[in-house]
Amino acid sequence: MKSKQSGNKILIFGFILFITLINIFNIVIPDKEFSESENRLLEQMPKLSFKNLSNGRFTKRFEKYISDQFVNRDGWVGLKSDIERLRLQKENKGIFFGKDEFLLENYEKPNDVLNNNITTLNKFKDKLSNIDMFFLLAPNSVNIYNDKLPLFANPYNQVKVIEHVENNLNENINFVSVYETLKKHKDEYIYFRTDHHWTMRGAYYAYLQYAKKAKIKPYTLDDFNDDIISDSFYGTYYSKASNYRLKPDELELFTPKFNVNYEVCFSDKDDCIDTLYNFDHLEKKDKYALFLDGNKPLVTISTDVNNNDKLLILKDSYAHSLIPFLANNYREIHILDLRYFNLSVHDYIKDNDINKILFLYNVSTFSKDTNLTKLK
Amino acid sequence: MLFSSLVFLYIFLPITLFIYFIGPKKYKNIILLIASLIFYSWGEPIYILLMIFSSIVDYSHGMLIEKYRDNDRKAKLIVLSSIIINLSLLGFFKYADFLILNINNIFNSNLNTFNLPLPIGISFYTFQTMSYTIDVYRKEAPVQRNFFSLATYVTLFPQLIAGPIVRYQTIAEEINFRKETIDKFADGLRRFIIGLGKKVLLANNIGLLWSTIKHAQLNELSVLTAWLGIIAFAFQIYFDFSGYSDMAIGLGKIFGFTFLENFNYPYISQSITEFWRRWHISLGTWFKDYVYIPIGGNRVSKFKMYRNIFVVWLLTGLWHGASWNFVLWGLYFGTILVIEKTFLLKFLNRLPRAIRHIYALILIIFGWVLFEFDNLTNVISYLKVMLGFNNNKFIDTEFIYYLYTNIILIIILIIASTPIISYTNNKTFYKLKNKEILYRNVLIPLLYLIILFISTAYLVDSTFNPFLYFRF
Predict the structure, then answer these.
(1) Hey, which residues does B127 pair with through a beta bridge?
(2) Which residues are bridge partners to B379 per DSSP?
(3) In whole angstroms, how far apart are CA B423 and each of B65, B419, B430, B447?
(4) Is A109 touching B (CB cutoff 8 A)?
(5) Is B447 on the interface with A (CB under 8 A)?
(6) Residue B472's pLDDT is what?
(7) Residue-level pLDDT at A218
(8) Of B39, B57, B75, B398, which has the maximum CB count within 10 A?
(9) How far apart are CA A350 and CA A366, in angstroms?
(10) How many whole angstroms separate alpha carbon B34 and alpha carbon B12?
(11) What local confidence, expressed as pLDDT, does residue B263 receive?
(12) Is there a catalytic annotation at residue B280?
């Protein structure tokens, strides 16, 4: 039985060594405040008090603290993702591992929220019969690049959703159809591989469709400088799928060659700035936030464009890379994010003499967003 | 607290092990008791009082039974008192709302339910404490005069939350006289790691597949997907439950306790009779020894024997949950068992093994449909899809996708459901000879540490919570 004993001793020794090392690392390495990959604040050591112990809050927070501050958290998450792919799994946490290093978010059949949103929009239009309204519904990459899906993967067809929305939307709301044009240009870099957004180039093609419907004269790509301002963008899909072996996205930026002046004001700041971009975000992980500095409750853009239109945009973040094109066609653009804006939209429209409204959403968000009810 | 959590693996367990193995022998039970109380109150500070109350009740009852050994009538009343108190505790916290809902349904009344959260482990520790008083009365175990020793048994954290149901007589000796050794520690550790892997790597992942299929609309499910789904659930519940039992048995062994096996490869069964000798063995044994045999067992008329079987299975079903589908599940198996006992087993034994095995698996799988859906309508709808009654497609792209993306996992699950691995493990020892040392001293420990390592990765990932929507 001697050799059995030594094998047992080695196992126990290895176990103790492993646990001890992990604990040493956890104790010695200082706690992190923010996780770039998860884009959230990390739990810190909770306060120990009798009250917190008896109501269970301390233990819950402590568990979260231990896991949030676990040594090399992102490394473990990446390992799990690797093993999932090794066992032939083609998705992780809802993101498909597509061909050509494309990450594609699974899209499921929408539930009642979609129809509720359509109803809300129709009621909204009924109350504002004299204002031109446009609705631009952008498909997601999982739909445009369905040829890159893993074999037999079967997300719900977003074209059905787009058609359903178009057929059920009040006919006085101008539906801007962008699916065909995006499909036509799919071999260009119009969607990010590692993020849930379209690129500025993709937004441009949608802008052209909007321009047709809104009867404005769109600028062409030649009117803009075309620069790659980052070649190391890892987006939301990258974080979720946790496959750390993919090549990053590039950020292509279009800036006007022609003369135009912008004044961009944010509701949560006093000073206004003269640019549509905040390039500080290029130093961080979420580089897409450089467009209009990310999600804000209310942004107003005033330009020296020669018309009298005041456009209100109700949107999700797909709009952020399209607005830099629109800003050259309107004197005033008001951008409301219903997730954060809690005042009356009707009052805002009245107080600011809004005469055109554009709803800009991507299919995935529009199928789940419950904030549109704030439009009442 | 759960075994399969970072807090348990990296904080609670190492500290408890350290203090336990450093502490002097006479304090080891107290150390375990305190650790168990912390373990239990970690999630629910209030309900710990219930458990302490249950320990006090049964300690005092045990002492009283010993005192009134000569007065059998009194002793019996004391046992009865213990049973009533424990069952009342269990009945109130677990079944009161179920009772109220049924009263409301029958009498059209509008009584409010209590909506109390279920105290963790109450189905296990009440059964364990009852087993103590009954075993003391029956002289199958000596009375425990040390309250802390009894409390250690009641609260012992390895088996507290999800079993196995450890009867007092099993560890009566070890509570006061046990020896921790390196071999036991290593055996227990290996068992624990296997259980951890079963839960975190196997059960949780196949559970994801079931979760996806369960949430699909029934009219869009193909027949094969429906089968795949419930088979995924069958694997999930087996590896989850048996994995937890493995962790419990392993931890017990580390501390010097020998718990009885709770699962014995149930999915290789060739009859339902065999299945229930391999599944959740501790519960079956408990009901046999404390209900079936006392009410007559099979030593009575045939009619009474069938009655006894149905009583036991009704209770078995009910034990699993306060809902009618669990009762039906119990009665479902009770009926099959009676049929097998009367004539079916004899008939089955004439058929080839493969047929018997398929027969058992199909009945087990249908049983899981009954178990998993708490609404009888949903049970029937799902069964209809499985049997092709609803014009659902037989096969679709979803099925192929689910199958091939989980095929490696499924193959591992199938292999792990059979004794093949331990069989080959034992065989290899006798073949390798020289390489045996490399195998035992390097490969095997490394393999277990790898399972621990990968399980940690999956545990960290399960807490990975990107705040994507609102910030982006």
Answers:
(1) none
(2) none
(3) 46, 6, 12, 17
(4) yes
(5) no
(6) 33
(7) 95
(8) B39
(9) 25
(10) 12
(11) 96
(12) no
**Least Cα separation, residue A278 to chain B (angstroms):** 15
A263's enclosing H/E stretch is strand A262-266
Q: Helix (H, G, I), strand (E, B), or coil: what is residue B354? A: helix
Residue B461: which of A77, A152, A154 has the nearest Cβ? A77
How far are the Cα atoms of A125, A307, A311 from residue A345, in angstroms, in the given order? Answer: 13, 24, 13
User: A91: helix, coil or strand?
Assistant: strand
B49 at A interface, C-beta within 8 A: no
B-chain CB neighbours of A339 within 8 Å are: 470
Q: Does B407 touch chain A (CB under 8 A)?
A: yes
Name the residue of chain A whose CA is nearest to B440's CA.
A7
Cα separation values, B398 from A87, B387, B403, B405, Å: 18, 18, 8, 11
Amino acid at A229: I
Cβ-based contacts of A56 with chain B (< 8 Å): 43-45
More confident call, B467 vs B381:
B381
Residue A350, judged by CB atoms within 10 A of its CB (0-12, 13-18, 19+), counts as exposed
Q: Which residue in the set B189, B190, B437 is minimally distant from A3, CB to CB?
A: B437
Assign A273 to helix, strand or coil.
Answer: strand
Tokens of B272: 């339902």
For residue A76, the chain B residues in CB contact (below 8 A) are: 456-457, 460-461
CA B275 to chain centre: 14
CB contact under 8 A, B453 and A18: yes
pLDDT category at B466 given cuts 50, 70, 90 is low
- At residue B469 the predicted structure's pLDDT band, cuts being 50, 70 and 90, is very low
The interaxial angle of helices B204-214 and B223-254, nearest 10 deg, is 150
Three-state DSSP class for residue A55? coil
Q: Are B226 and B382 in contact (CB under 8 A)?
A: yes
Q: What is the pLDDT of residues B389-445, one digit of tens each?
A: 878 899 999 999 999 999 999 999 999 999 998 877 776 666 666 667 777 778 889
Lateral strand order in the sheet of A91-92: A91-92, A95-97, A103-105
Q: For residue A30, which amino acid is it?
A: P
Interface subset of A 127-146, CB within 8 angstroms of B: none
Chain A environment of B405 (Cβ under 8 Å) = 88-91, 150
Stretches in chain A below the pLDDT threshold 50: 1, 3
Binary contact (B441, A289; C-beta < 8 A): no
- Those residues whose C-beta lies under 8 Å from the C-beta of residue B46, and which sit 6 or more positions away, are none
On chain B, the residues whose CB falls within 8 A of the CB of A62 are 7
Q: How far is CA A166 from CA A176, B50, B461, in A?
A: 9, 60, 40
- Burial label, B44 (beta-carbon count in 10 A; 0-12, 13-18, 19+): middle
Tell me the one-letter amino acid at B324.
W
Chain B neighbors of A5, CB-CB under 8 A? 182-183
Within 8 A by CB and 6+ apart from A250, the residues are: A189, A228, A230, A231, A233
Q: Searching chain A, which residue's CA lies closest to the CA of residue B456?
A: A76
Q: Which residue in the block uniquely carries the two structure tokens 């509720």? A: A116
CB B442 within 8 A of CB B453: no
pLDDT score for B256: 95
B183-203 b/e with 16+ CB inside 10 Å = b?
ebbbbbbbbbbbbbbbbbbbb
Read off the tokens for A19: 């646990």
The answer for A 61-100 residues in CB contact with B (under 8 A) is 62-64, 66-68, 70, 73, 76-77, 79-81, 83, 87-91, 93
Q: Quote the pLDDT of residue B392.
A: 87
Which of A9, A24, A19 has its CA nearest to residue B8? Answer: A19
Cβ-defined contact of B463 to A294 (cutoff 8 Å) = no
